[in-house]
Amino acid sequence: MKSKISLIVLILLFCSCTNNTLSGYVYDYDTEKPIKNVQIDSNGNKTETDSTGYFILKVKPNKICKIVLRKEGYSSKKVERKPDSLGLFSKSNISNIRIYLFDKNSDFTE
Question: In what order do the strands lie in the sheet with 20-28?
Answer without folding.
Answer: 54-59, 20-28, 97-101
